Amino acid sequence: MNPEQAAVRQSAKEFVAGNIIPYAEYYDKSGDFHAYLLEATRTTGIFAMAVPTEYGGLGYCPLTQALVLEEWGYGCAAMGTTLSASILSMEAVLIAGNEDQKRRFCKPMLEAGLGAFALTEPAAGSDASAGVAIAVKSGNDYILNGPKCWITNGGVASVYVVFAATDPARGAKGLSAFIVERGLPGFIPGDREEKLGLRSSNTSFFFLKDVRVPAANLLGQEGDGMKIAMETLDIARPAIGALAVGLAQRCLDECVKHLRRRFPAKSFPGETLQFELADMQIEIEGARQAQHHTMALREAKLPFTKESAVAKTLCTAVAMNVTSRAMRLMGSHAYTSEFGKFMRDAKVMQIYEGTNQIQRLVIARSVLAPPRAAAPATTAGKK
Ligand code: CAA
Predict the structure, then answer these.
(1) Is 352's C-beta closer than 6 angstroms to any atom of ligand 1?
(2) Residue 103 CB burial class (10 angstroms; 0-12, 13-18, ≥19)
(3) Which tens digits make up the pLDDT trace of 125-158?
(4) Domains (ranges, CATH) in the chain?
(5) Among all residues, which ones are annotated catalytic?
(6) What is the pTM of this model?
């Protein structure tokens, strides 16, 4: 971490302490969307932290973004998810959009609006290319039809990246990606999901009924959709890892606070319990390093698909494990909705943005790939 990154992390910590932690329990209980946050962040520009400076954003590098996301995960994973899912949609446009599309899509982000990434459908979750949403060219437009479900920010975003088949017969190669602005005729919003965890993050269904989208909103070329989705998810998965690490650290810190209250200094339980706490911290540190490593690879423009899947799997497994161990150490005190929020929020992290089974598939493909050719012999460094 350089001094600039340390300063960003410190200011995220302060923002979270003042604007997120005090309200997290209320919104978890009510399940209402934490809309106040958009107003609270308006002057910070944090929803545009991934937007490059040439488009007016903060232009944070991947590691700096991860530091912010960890702090938000520490404060409230639901609110962190609102931020990370908005960035996810932004990344798709940054990967595949042209200048005009980038500028148009960045605008709402700069104004603290939200984006949503609409890939999942009732019949297309893990099998991302099995959807029924279609886009048919009509003059200078595409007409989009079909359902989208389990979309984070689905009911509250101002702009969506929607995946639909332009050539259904070609499967993954027939999928395309479109920028769809909210409010277009035929965009039918659905109910939000009542979830076990991440309760104040908006997760919604919506339906597209003859929605006319200008052809200028097609990202890349027809048929590029699957690649755009996969490249975007490579970027987004370690970001979920950052949220998970923040959540796990908070849970451990709260567990320690409770144990200190419960046991006066002299009678603090011995090594068995202390080793449990140490093991939890070891897991968190390892997970944190895994996602930072992925961010560093991305920044160095090196391949990171496998590492992204490893980071997502490891960090979210650690979050689940830490929340479950903390509950065991704390006994019935932890079985309250307030403390249980950590475990409820952690569970879905093993599911969304590609289940951890899908991550294992991605990792296995890399492990089983034919070995790379050995690097050519070099005389560098030899006399
Ligand atoms: N980068 C670039 N291109 C990639 C890629 C990557 N990481 N991974 C695959 N591709 C390309 C492939 O090269 C292939 O193109 P070619 O045929 O031209 O070579 C194309 O994409 C299809 O790839 P596969 O043949 O590997 O596809 P598959 O059908 O076997 O499935 C999968 C791959 C990994 C299972 C994929 O379907 C997947 O990741 N599924 C999970 C979907 C997912 O993560 N959904 C989460 C939704 S978003 C969300 O949850 C956000 C939210 O709101 C919280």
Answers:
(1) yes
(2) middle
(3) 999 999 999 999 999 999 999 999 999 999 999 9
(4) 3-114 (1.10.540.10), 116-225 (2.40.110.10), 233-367 (1.20.140.10)
(5) 353
(6) 0.95
